[in-house]
Amino acid sequence: MLKEIYEQPSAILDTFRGRLLSKEAIIKMSGVEDNMKKFLAADRIIIVACGTSWHAGLVAEYIFEDLARIPVEVEYASEFRYRNPVITEKDIVIAISQSGETADTLAAIKLAKSKGAFVFGVCNVVGSTIARETDAGAYTHAGPEIGVASTKAFTTQITVLTLMALRLARAKGTMSSSEFRHHLIELETIPSKVEEALKSDAYVKTVAEIYKNSTNFLYLGRGFNFPVALEGALKLKEISYIHAEGYPAAEMKHGPIALIDEQMPVVVIATKKGHYEKVVSNIQEIKSRKGKIIGIVTKGDTSVKELADHVIEVPETLECLTPLLTTIPLQLLSYHIAVMLERNVDQPRNLAKSVTVE
Ligand code: F6R
C-alpha cells in the first residue's frame, strides 16, 4: 500500500500524459472526442460505482457541474440496479471501476444500456469486463493496484474525470480559453505537488502515534473535499478496523456533534478557498467541545493552526484540484495507524480486491 501511495505522482502523470497538451491548450481523449455529440446533447450524467470509485464519482459530480455545467447524479451501483431508475436515451452513464469486474457496477451498466443510455467506462484494468461492456471509455493509467485499499486508483480516476470535465467545458463554452489554459497548466503541476504532499509522511506518522488507540474518528470536508472526507474515513475503517465516519462539515450540527468530546479525533479538510471561513467556524465548534482537531490545510495557513491540535500542510492549487492533494495525508494517516496496530494493510480481513459477487 505504501508503495502505491508513493506511486501517485507518476500514476497521475501517466494518466494525463499524451492527453493534456498545455502548450497547444488541448485535451485529447478519443473516447470523449468520438462521442462529443452525445456528450453535448446529454440532459444529465449518471455516475455509477462502488466504494472508493463511488467517492471519485462524487468528486467528479462537483467538477462536472462546476466546470461543464452538466447536471450529475452519483449512484451506488448496487442501489441503482435494483430501484427501477428513470433512464433515457439522453442520459450518459459513466461507470467507474478500478478492477473493471465489480458485479454491481457491471449490472448497473447492463441496465443502463438496456434503457438506451450511452455508457462510458473509467477503468484501470485494460480489457476488463466493464471496459469491454461499455460503449466507450478512458483508462486510468495507475498501473496494477495490488493493495486491497484503493489509493492510486482513486487519484487517477479523479484525474481522468477532471480531464473529461475540462474537455466538455471547453466544448460547451462554459469556460473561457484563458481559464481552460490555466486549469491545464495547474493540473500539470499536480504530480510535483503530490510529491510535496508526500513529504508530510514523517509528521503524519507522529500524529498516527498519538491517535492510534482511538476507537472512533470523524472526517469532515466541504464542497470538492466532502467526498475526500468520506474516502479518508473508508481508508481508516478498512485497514485499521477503527470506526470512522465522513460527513459534510456543515452536517455536523445535525447529529454527529453529539459525539464530540476529548476522546474524539476529528480530521478536518480546511484548505484555502472552498468555504474556508465556514470550515474554520466548524473547527471552532469542535474545539469548544474539546474534540481533537487534525487539520489538513493549505501551506502557510495561520487561522486553522491557531485552533487545531495538529495541522498537515498540502500545497496550494485550484479549488477543484485540491482532492488530489488532500487525499494524500489521509491515506498516510490510515496506513501508519494500521501498521502501528499490526494490521495487514495490504490484505485487510474480510475484503477482496475485486468484488465479483453481489
Ligand atoms: C476501497 C476499495 C473498494 C473499491 C470497490 C470498487 O479501498 O478498494 O471500496 O473501491 O470495491 O471496486 P472497483 O473500483 O474495482 O469497481
UniProtKB/TrEMBL annotation:
One of its GO terms (cellular component) is cytosol. Keywords: Aminotransferase, Glutamine amidotransferase, Repeat, Transferase. It comes from the Bacteria. InterPro entries: GFAT, GlmS/AgaS_SIS, GlmS/FrlB_SIS, SIS_dom, SIS_dom_sf. GO terms for biological process: fructose 6-phosphate metabolic process; protein N-linked glycosylation; UDP-N-acetylglucosamine metabolic process. It holds the Pfam family SIS. Its EC number is 2.6.1.16. This is Glutamine--fructose-6-phosphate aminotransferase [isomerizing]. It comes from Winogradskyella psychrotolerans RS-3. The lineage of its organism: Bacteria, Pseudomonadati, Bacteroidota, Flavobacteriia, Flavobacteriales.
